[in-house]
Design brief:
Keywords: Signal. By secondary structure, this protein is mainly beta. The chain is built from two helices and 29 strands. Strand 15 and strand 16 (201-208) form a beta hairpin.
């Protein structure tokens, strides 16, 4: 035990002295969204380029330069991509997920592709829904089988008060509807899905009447049934919340970051971690500025929790130091959008007023 604590302390001290280095950007075209994934050989960065439309591109950092992973990744390069996210599967392959307007009135597509070393490949069909449904929110991760699973916001659940969060499963031919995770007397929204040990799925999402939403976490058991993990995480129950972000520790414990209205000030960023069936708050608010926090990103370093977020278009980052949150110094940004952290917290990306910027802690 003493050796483990000493190791963690040394890791924290090393992290405290880590320097931030800006990497050359893989694109000079105006960007909007970013997402980072950890892959052997160097992190993969994907982003949306803004021109006549929004196109997804990706590149991998080899320690010296960015190597493009294919060209435009959109299903149709003339369509607009949004809600960009990434995952890494058990074999180390990087996956991208994004929404794309299908070129048909009121139809939206959700697509997922994996880089096979030569090209981006889709191993499942697209999910195509009416924009009033599919345009809301969704999240994916990859099962041990190498096939993705989805958490989806569905407005067609019979008997539901509003939109509902439900799981979707690919059977080799089509997407099958799974369990509804929220209580039907409330709306469910903004799921974030992670697949942990043994393929167990965990989802953080919002539940309430939209104006007042609780942050809830549900997990799939060994039998396939879903259960709630403790009570809602809100620091102020039944208040406005947004954008829950979920990470799983190597042993499967959940860590959640989210935005929550502060009765005494602007919207704040909070983080809690799972300890058995209970939740432990990591300090008070992470964000302390005069501006409202938004667009959080969450990562687990080898020794701590790291978050990034925006306030009035300015990028911020902080790290949990065991008793409080310590701000991480960043270069000045403005009109920033789409921040992302690599899952190991070592890389940070953002669109800085349309300019793609990437940093590494070293």
């Amino acid at each position: 035990m003493h050796r483990r604590l000493t190791g963690l302390l040394l890791a924290c001290l090393c992290t405290a002295h880590a320097a931030l280095r800006e990497l050359p950007a893989p694109s000079k075209v105006k960007t909007e969204l970013t997402t980072l994934a950890n892959v052997a050989g160097g992190p993969v960065l994907a982003w949306t380029e803004v021109g006549i439309n929004r196109q997804v591109r990706a590149a991998q950092w080899d320690g010296q330069t960015w190597q493009a992973l294919g060209g435009v990744i959109n299903e149709d390069p003339t369509f607009n991509a949004a809600q960009l996210s990434s995952r890494t599967d058990r074999t180390g392959r990087v996956w991208l997920g994004w929404a794309e307007d299908a070129g048909i009135a009121h139809v939206d597509s959700w697509l997922m592709s994996v880089w096979d070393g030569q090209a981006w490949v889709r191993l499942t069909g697209a999910v195509r829904r009416n924009l009033s449904d599919a345009g809301r929110s969704r999240s994916f991760d990859v099962l041990p089988s190498g096939i993705p699973a989805l958490a989806w916001t569905d407005i067609h659940v019979q008997g539901a008060w509003g939109a509902s969060v439900r799981s979707l499963r690919w059977n080799g031919q089509t997407w099958l509807q799974g369990t509804v995770l929220n209580e039907l007397k409330y709306a469910g929204f903004a799921p974030d899905l992670r697949v942990g040990q043994g393929g167990r799925q965990t989802v953080a999402f919002l539940e309430g009447d939209y104006a007042r939403m609780n942050v809830v976490v549900a997990q799939q058991g060994a039998s396939g049934n879903w259960r709630r993990l403790g009570q809602p995480l809100n620091r102020h129950p039944d208040t406005f919340t947004a954008t829950p972000k979920l990470a799983l520790s190597p042993w499967g414990a959940a860590i959640v970051a989210w935005i929550e209205a502060d009765p005494q000030g602007p919207d704040r960023l909070y983080v809690s971690r799972q300890t058995g069936q209970a939740w432990q708050a990591l300090g008070s608010t992470v964000s302390t500025g005069a501006g409202a926090a938004e667009q959080p990103a969450l990562a687990l370093t080898p020794s701590s929790v790291r978050v990034a977020w925006l306030e009035n278009g300015v990028l911020h980052a902080a790290e949990w130091r065991g008793g409080d949150w310590r701000a991480l110094g960043l270069p000045r940004t403005q009109h920033a959008t789409g921040p992302s952290l690599s899952p190991d917290g070592q890389f940070l990306a953002v669109s800085d007023g349309g300019k793609l910027r990437v940093w590494a802690w070293e």
